[in-house]
Amino acid sequence: MVKKKMTGETQNAWILWTATNPDRVRTWGVIFDMDGVLIDKEKETIFREILLADFPGMDGSAELIVALHETGAALAIGSSASPENVQVVLERLSVAEQFEATTNGSEITRGKPDPEVFLKTAHKIEVLPSQCVVVEDSPAGVAAARAAGCAVIALTGTAPRSKLAEADLTVDSLRDLTPEIIKGLLSA
């Protein structure tokens, strides 16, 4: 696995933060992307109403999130979706309490493939980006996670496997993942 190293302001900010907060640096974390579709405000309202009425949880997501939490992984959602969409997903997710932080589209100024969303999310959970694994479903998201210096798991479905080739691991289902497989990407 080839990880991109942080450079410039981002690296300097992390060095300063870790030097002044050594007791707060976590050993590892997992950031889940939850973007899917860019839609206008009226359609977003309808989208949220549909989610509230019938949330289509991804097969295996609840079990994986619980298993990761039990290992001590810091869990977060890093998304360029609106705060309202992130909130609706959290409200409907049966394991929302396992997430320590979220980053949403209102908190970032640059969209994917820029790494901003994942860098901010890693900072919120106090985990160095190099110790985070991002679970993504889009080529731009995979590129963003890679640019942040994170390990990347690509989930097929919204993009074909061939478009997700930059990921460290590509899976067809969250059921293909275990905490050991995910954490193993950090030591590869």
Summary, kept brief:
This protein has a single domain, classed as HAD superfamily/HAD-like (Rossmann fold). With 188 residues, it is of the alpha/beta class. The longest helix has 13 residues.
Textual characterization of the structure:
This protein has 188 residues and is α/β, with parallel strands linked by helices. Helices cover 38% and strands 13% of the residues. The protein has a single domain (8-13, 27-184), classed as Rossmann fold, CATH 3.40.50. The chain contains 7 helices and 6 strands, in the order αβααβαβαβαββα. Strand 4, helix 6 and strand 5 (151-155) form a beta-alpha-beta unit. Helix 2 runs parallel beside helix 4 (83-92). Residues 35-39 have low confidence and may be disordered.
**Biggest sheet: strand arrangement:** 3-2-1-4-5-6
Structural class: alpha/beta
Q: Could you say what the CATH topology is called? A: Rossmann fold
Shape: globular
Question: How many distinct folded domains?
Answer: 1
Gap between N and C termini, in Å? 6 Å
What is the gyration radius calculated from CA atoms?
16 Å
Mean pLDDT: 84
Helix-strand string: HEHHEHEHEHEEH
The DSSP helix count reads 7
